[in-house]
Write a structure and sequence with these properties.
The complex is a heterodimer of chains A (117) and B (112). Chain A starts with a strand and ends with a strand. In chain A, the strands form two sheets. In chain A, strands 2, 4, 5, 6, 9, 10 and 11 form a seven-stranded mixed beta sheet that branches. A four-stranded antiparallel beta sheet of chain A has the order 1-3-8-7, with no helix packed on it. Chain A has 117 residues and is mainly beta. Chain A has no helices and eleven strands. Chain B has 112 residues and is mainly β. Chain B is 0% helix and 53% strand. Chain B has no helices and eleven strands. In chain B, the strands form two sheets. In chain B, strands 2, 4, 5, 9, 10 and 11 form a six-stranded mixed beta sheet that branches. In chain B, a hairpin with a 7-residue loop joins strand 9 and strand 10. Classes of the chains: A mainly beta (117), B mainly beta (112). Chains A and B meet through strand 5, strand 9 and strand 10 of A and strand 4, strand 5 and strand 9 of B.
């Protein structure tokens, strides 16, 4: 099956610092990657859609200057939480879409737990 | 805006019991995915169904896509403690483009 990795798996940082999270598709090329945020015992909330070589599309209410997304290649997308604050603490998950005959199936990374002190 | 209603939200059962989780929508989806997520991990794909009326079986799990492609169900037979987790349905395609519309999730606990 398709494998998506995320790094780091968890991070603790001080308020005001920036944190970068990497999402990689290991055995397939992903023209589209997605970034989600998840609160405990809740479903996933889509933050943005990242397309290789173009600007990310952000969901309503998500600050694009706060959550910077760069999709540098067909196997790598990064999410940078700038000037992080305690309210940004959450579980961030990326997914990669395998196109073609696989349709809209998305494969998820293992997630990154962010704790801002 | 497409919505996917998932029920029940919480389910606690004894080992050996059967259960069914439902996902319903007024919108048509070109595909429907089911995921299972354990605490602190990302969702793991269980199945993708794309044809109206399609039934797929994965060991003790049976997935069905409604004829009109607006609803889906997941049935687990003889549940085991290892089945415990958050089950998510997600619909794709039609008006949502490449995005997935997620249900609210079903937190399943199977007690030994």
């Amino acid at each position: 099956g398709a494998v998506v990795s995320q790094h780091p798996s968890w991070v603790i940082c001080k308020s005001g610092t920036s944190v970068k999270i990497e999402c990689r598709s290991l055995d397939f090329q992903a023209t589209t990657m997605f970034w989600y945020r998840q609160f405990p015992k809740q479903s996933l909330m889509l933050m943005a859609t990242s397309n290789e070589g173009s600007k990310a599309t952000y969901e309503q209410g998500v600050e694009k200057d706060k959550f910077l997304i760069n999709h540098a290649s067909l196997t790598l997308s990064t999410l940078t939480v700038t000037s992080a604050h305690p309210e940004d603490s959450s579980f961030y998950i990326c997914s990669a879409r395998m196109g073609g005959s696989w349709g809209e199936t998305q494969y998820f990374g293992p997630g990154t737990r962010l704790l801002v002190l | 805006t497409q919505l996917l209603e998932q029920s029940p939200q919480f389910l606690s059962i004894q080992e050996g019991e059967n259960l069914t989780v439902y996902c319903n929508s007024s919108s048509v989806f070109s595909s429907l995915q089911w995921y299972r997520q354990e605490p602190g991990e990302g969702p793991v794909l269980l199945v993708t169904v794309v044809t109206g009326g399609e039934v797929k079986k994965l060991k003790r799990l049976t997935f069905q896509f409604g004829d009109a492609r607006k609803d889906s169900s997941l049935h687990i037979t003889a549940a085991q403690p290892g089945d415990t987790g958050l089950y998510l349905c997600a619909g794709g395609g039609e008006t949502s483009g490449s995005r997935l519309t997620f249900g609210e999730g079903t937190q399943l606990t199977v007690n030994p």
